[in-house]
Amino acid sequence: MQRLKLAVVSAGLSRPSSTRLLADRLTEATGERLAQAGRPVDVHAIELRDLATDIANHMVTGFPSAPLREALDAVAGADGVIAVTPVFTASYSGLFKSFFDVLDNTALTGTPVLIAATGGTARHSLALEHALRPLFAYLRAVVVPTAVFAASEDWGAGDAQTEGLPVRVARAGEELAGLMAGRPAAAAAPEEEGVVPFEEQLAALRPR
Known about the structure:
Blueprint: E1 4-10, H1 18-36, E2 41-47, H2 52-61, H3 66-76, E3 80-88, E4 91-92, H4 94-102, E5 112-119, H5 127-138, E6 142-143, E7 148-151, H6 165-181, H7 198-205
Parallel strand pairs: 1-2, 1-3, 3-5, 5-6, 5-7
Antiparallel strand pairs: 3-4
Organism: Streptomyces lycii
Domain NADPH-dependent FMN reductase-like: 5-155
Keywords: Flavoprotein, FMN, Oxidoreductase
């Protein structure tokens, strides 16, 4: 059976990062559910912190660097996506938004996406519904019902008998795994011979 592809986008700015920690827990929960369903998965983790300069350059030049192109291709070719951002001023971070701004706006059509966010207080949790969910709805992704927010007090709290962070992570991972398991694995895009990429065509038009 062909292996599924899971792209995990984390927009944390610090190291260590609670945003990356939440992304890792969601990845683990999703992977466990897929393993139980007999669907092997390959995970491609994308740290936007490492691509910040590349994203900014791409926005003003239209030319992605090789690492950024690899990240964009990983998201576009994934069978499922986990997208996690810190919340700044009641919304997603600028770095997070900029990455999805440079992604082709048809790349996530029909792709299952699990959205999650971190913040210092639970008051920021509404950003999942008023900012992240509309963003991925616009990109025509299939957003799983359970969105996961982790405030500072959530870490280490809760157990299997309560509605703590571990329960929400497990539920969201199960929902994403269910959607991914019901999809045929994404096939690698065939390379077109003799086709000059649009970026190269633009470069050829520039005065030397």
